[in-house]
Design goal:
Length: 125
């Protein structure tokens, strides 16, 4: 009876030791683009406590393009601003102003806009 238990266990353990490769349809560039905003520290109602250089202004937008979809949110506009800040090599974003527009405009049923300073925080050793 013990042999009947050990044989399947040995087969399973042997399969784990085989040369297994993983293939995915995800590409590395799409992954980097998706996580790019997380590289930028957000300062929404605060100021950085370390020295920094201002790289420029960025504007993030969100648009509700279909009438029955989720309304545009300030969070999505901030994320877009963080993505644009990362595009210019910033590692911080000081939000200056965010506005949500509920009136239809330029192909959007509702929209949100956030403007901020893209900054490069100086790393202290």
């Amino acid at each position: 009876m013990k042999h009947l238990v050990f044989l399947p266990l040995a087969v399973l353990l042997g399969a784990c030791g085989s040369n297994y490769t993983f293939n995915s349809n995800l590409n590395k560039k799409a992954f980097k683009e998706y996580f790019k905003p997380s590289e930028v520290k957000l300062f929404d109602h605060t100021q950085p406590t370390v020295p920094y250089d201002v790289l420029g202004l960025v504007q993030g937008t969100a648009c509700q393009s279909v009438a029955n979809s989720t309304p545009a949110s300030l969070a999505n506009a901030r994320t877009d601003a963080r993505r644009k800040a990362a595009d210019i090599k910033a590692n911080g974003l000081i939000i200056k102003s965010c506005t949500q527009l509920k009136e239809p405009e330029a192909g959007c049923y509702s929209s949100a806009v956030c403007v901020g300073q893209a900054i490069r925080l100086q790393v202290q050793d």
